[in-house]
Amino acid sequence: MLLKGILVCLLVFIVFNLFRALPIMLKGQSDVPMSRFLGRRVLFSVIAFVILLVALATGVIEPNSRPY
Fold it and tell me: What sections of the protein cross the membrane (predicted)?
């Protein structure tokens, strides 16, 4: 359950950073560069992916053996 909570928090933070970059992208000028928010989004996406890979490798979660 803790793993699911961590992944949900990461996904919410990813979407939050995406929406923080949206006004900067639309207006074009800001004090903070758009790459800061998009870079955070990519970083937390990689962290979520690594957490999933580690959970699969350790057996915490199991992949679906029959995809259909």
Answer: 37-61
- What CA–CA distance (Å, rounded) separates 44 from 14? 6
* Residue 44 CB coordination number (10 Å): 18
- pLDDT tens-place string over residues 42-55: 999 999 999 999 99
Structure-block tokens of residue 42: 């990519």
**Token representation of residue 41:** 């989004």
pLDDT band at 32 (very low <50, low <70, confident <90, very high): confident
In this prediction the pTM is: 0.79
Q: What does the alpha-carbon distance between residue 32 and residue 15 come to, in Å, rounded to a whole number? A: 18
- Percentages helix, strand, coil for the chain, rounded to the nearest 5? 75, 0, 25
